[in-house]
Design a protein that fits this description.
- The protein is mainly α.
- It has 13 helices and 14 strands.
- The strands form six sheets. A three-stranded antiparallel β-sheet has the order 3-4-5. A three-stranded antiparallel β-sheet has the order 12-13-14. It has a two-stranded antiparallel sheet with strand order 1-2.
- It is globular.
């Protein structure tokens, strides 16, 4: 545990000394409320729009830090600003969530997917826990049920049914349903609705497992025709890492021995398959059969993939005590600390080229915000300190 204890201390230092100060200084709109996420290397705002899922994530992150790390008044005040901004502006006349808003809250974009709503739900729920404002919990519960219907019936979000589209089950849907249910179960562990959702997630994940390759496919083909498409062969190592620790938490509520074995097999498979043996770090996307991925950014090294790997390895080692996970952990953390942190302006670069140099120097955008890095650092240090006190 000595190596992990040292890592936990570094997580705390990085979190409170670099990551959070950057976002607290540069992302908060003190005039209109809410958060900017499109920030240059030095924190300059380069897009004044407010991306809804980035705002929901930051509300969640600041509320969770306030509630579980340190009750800093400025964190809760910033979370309140984001929650109130979303509550005023995020819903259309059908209670669907916009994808982006102007700085003052006018609709700027709509996406026919449920994921913006997911992080509004999670942000509202966590803010309710941190602040004690029950109204936000009720909003979160309503969204939770709506999102379940959106996933089952995409037409509710205006997505047409296309007869030639591949028939696929997406890891993203399993992830979001599991994440919402787990956060609701945290203070209501007997919630039958949420337990049923977790059981459904565990059934669904089995469709994504490829036994010969010991990987979870990003999209599980539901017929032979779909299996022949690039979408049906897509591997995203970061998704494998993230779903690993999330489903391990689900197993604490609804045990499933088969899924428990699959998590160990696919974590090792994802680490081996995703690691760039020439330059180090994890590829973003790969084709399971070695074809060229359609995603042009496939060889880039992204922030979230690597921090999810770190927390997944911390989590699995603490649960199993198998030293092979520590060997992988040491390899990954060495690469991460050498390439991602920005020693000049704070926070981390998000988009590196294959060799590990910054391809983009921005610190945030419409997909990178105050979430994956601080969450992984927080969860890692908390898990290590809990294990050390047992």
């Amino acid at each position: 545990m000595k190596m992990l204890s040292k890592f936990a201390d570094r997580c705390h230092t990085e979190l409170t000394g670099s990551i959070l100060p950057f976002w607290m200084k540069h992302s908060i709109d003190t005039q209109n409320g809410g958060f900017w996420s499109c920030l240059e290397r030095d924190g300059t705002v380069f897009d004044p729009r407010k991306y809804v899922w980035m705002n929901g994530r930051q509300v969640w992150m600041l509320s969770r830090l306030y509630r579980t790390l340190e009750p800093r008044a400025e964190w809760l005040a910033a979370a309140r600003s984001g929650a109130e901004f979303l509550r005023r502006h995020v819903f259309d006349d059908q209670q669907r969530c916009w994808f982006s808003l102007t700085a003052d809250g006018r609709p700027a974009g709509y996406q026919r997917k449920p994921y913006g709503a997911v992080f509004v739900m999670l942000g509202f729920l966590e803010y309710s826990k941190a602040s004690g404002d029950a109204a936000y919990r009720e909003l979160a519960l309503d969204l939770f049920r709506r999102i379940g219907r959106y996933i089952e019936e995409p037409g509710l979000l205006g997505r047409p049914s296309v007869p030639g589209a591949p028939r696929l089950s997406g890891l993203a849907d399993i992830y979001v349903l599991c994440a919402m249910a787990l956060d609701l179960l945290e203070d209501d562990p007997g919630n039958l609705e949420c337990l049923d959702v977790l059981r459904g997630c565990l059934r669904q994940i089995k469709l994504h497992y490829h036994p010969a390759r010991q990987l979870f496919y990003e999209n599980a083909p539901l017929d032979q025709e779909s299996a022949q498409t690039p979408d049906g062969r897509l591997i995203c190592p970061g998704s494998i890492f993230e779903i690993n620790w999330l489903l391990s938490r689900a197993l604490d509520y609804v045990p499933d021995a088969e899924v428990g074995k699959l998590l160990l097999l696919t974590l090792e498979g994802g680490l081996e398959f995703g690691w760039d043996k020439e330059f180090g770090g994890f590829f973003y996307f790969l084709d399971a059969e070695g074809h060229s991925p359609l995603q042009l950014e496939w060889a880039m090294k992204l922030w979230w993939v690597h921090v999810e790997a770190l927390y997944a390895l911390v989590n699995v080692y603490i649960r199993t005590q198998d030293p092979k996970w520590l060997e992988w952990f040491e390899r990954v953390q060495e690469w991460v600390w050498a390439h991602f942190p920005d020693k000049q302006f704070g926070e981390w670069f998000g988009y590196l080229d294959r060799q590990g140099s910054p391809e983009l120097t921005l610190k945030g955008g419409n997909y990178k915000g105050c979430f994956h890095i601080p969450r992984a650092l927080l969860f890692s240090l908390q898990a290590i300190r809990r294990a050390g006190s047992v």
